[in-house]
Amino acid sequence: MTPAGADKQKEWRFKTRRSEDGALELLFSGRWRLDAGLPDPAQLLPEPGAGMRRLSFVTTGLVAWDSGFLVFLRVFLRRCREHGFEVDEKGLPAGVRHLLSMAAAVPEQKAARRQSGRRGLVFELGAATLAFFRGAPAMLHFLGEIILSLGRLFRGRARFRLSDLWWEIEEVGPRALAIVSVISFLVGLILAYLGADQLRLVGAQIFIADLVAIGMVREVGALMTGIIIAGRTGAAFAAQLGTMQVNEEIDAFRTLGISPVDFLVLPRMLALMLMVPILTLYAGFVGMLAGLLVSATIFDIGVFEYYTETLRALELKHFLVGLSKGSVYGAMVAYAGCLRGMQCGRSAESVGEAATSAVVTAILLITISASIMTIIYYRLGI
Amino acid sequence: MIEAPAIEISDLTMAYGDFVIQRDLSFTVNKGDIFVIMGGNGCGKTTLMRALIGLQRPAMGTVLYGGEDFWGVFPAEQERLKRRLGIMFQGGALWSSLTLAENIALPLKEYTALSLGRIAELVSFKLALVGLAGFEDFYPAELSGGMKKRAGLARAMALDPDILIIDEPSSGLDPLTARRLDDLILELKDSLSTTVVIITHELASILGIGTNSVFLDAEARTMINTGDPREALRSGDPKVRRFLTRGAEA
Lengths: 382, 250
What we know:
- Chain A is α/β, with parallel strands linked by helices.
- Chain A has helices at 67-82, 94-105, 121-154, 162-172, 177-199, 208-246, 249-255, 260-297, 303-313, 316-342, 348-380, and strands spanning 12-18, 24-32, 54-58, 62-65, 86-88.
- The mean pLDDT of chain A is 88.
């Protein structure tokens, strides 16, 4: 048998004949290589004839072979044995016999095989729900570890390096100024335009200053800073800690009796809790500048007029509300970033997942805490 | 006509900026060799490997594969030459988002016209060769370091390459598995005429299966010995003998 329409140079050939001792001889010749379009082993299985239960091989005409021949034979021999043939492999090239025996030397780990196949939507939904509820205790556990670590910090027993804290402060604070400036400026600009459009209807465009000042200082500055920091720093925390998890660095801390929460999480947490309120104030200031620019150049409001109206509108409570929100959002971002980093698996892919999950968790936590704080401040009349 | 050697290195110098790692390397890897690149830690073995496989352009010199200058041809030609190589990285370098089967199947899907069924059979066979039959559906993160290494070798062998380049095949493996891997390398050389280049400092492998070698010296920053490693053990440079006897022959 030869392949239909095959190139003579590349073709494989197969024949059978009865040997003198009554065995069925399988003659393999030509090129048995992957690029020769090798046949399906089932096509060449011999029919169990009367008295011919023994198979032997003749490969003297074999010109070239590679893994394709080995894989063909592996399946072919198994099928022959399943069909009750007695197989004599002596006629096969020594290299083929050796490689086949090496492949068979370590038995297949059947227990290791996975159940394949797609799972239904209900299964996936159930699994996701269970994962969510199983995740909640882990989040609380990590929160507890952070509180204990903060307790050790206040008692002066937390083990971390001040240089790490300073490095983190520089990384999350000054290095974030550029992006915070750009975003806050644009948000201030949008607020001013939005306000001007509505306030013009009642001839009260001067109140653009009130809207932008209170909006930026009290709510939007903190919110935008929180979201920027979630994307910039929260993801970085998760990736850093996740990579340390992959490299077993966190295990090394544990084996030395050093709490990774003290050494790695605490400096990051403190840095963000210190820096985000400052960035929030800065964002408010940049937003007000954008409002001033729009008011003065587009809506003909005098600079001094705008300044006086801003001073009149802003009260200390607005700053305090903005600062408190900034602190909470900073803590949320640090918590989410460190939590997902510490929960990271052992592969490059899981580091990516940890970074994504850190941003999603941080934004979710920021939104939830923003809602809660807004309700509380409203109830308290602040 | 004389057949060109599998790999020919001439006057090769590797450097990071102004810092020269190794200079004036010239040696030949013949077809069917099990060629060992050896040397102490930090001598530039892996940097040499990176120059051989196209990951780092050498500062000077040439790398010829079957007479073709790897760094002197167009990128498309380089890609063609690279397909003749199978590379096993030190840690396996398996793609973490793919299962072992998918890792091995990827080059087969990209560069052959085989059916999915035939590819699955090949994958299963290659995994069985490295003692990982049944682990097709595992992700690399679920395997031990030694298993990752072996799976990396199975991927390197996927396309039956003419030249197999293996970085530290035995380090981190138990002695039996290391021996099994050495046997497999020998068998690939004997049966499929694969040329094998091994970067290692495992003495058992160097002396057990190496047929030719080069020794890179970190101090001299060049090669100080070439040839059969067993010959080097008997009459090579004293530094090489000390290396091959774990310092016993000082």
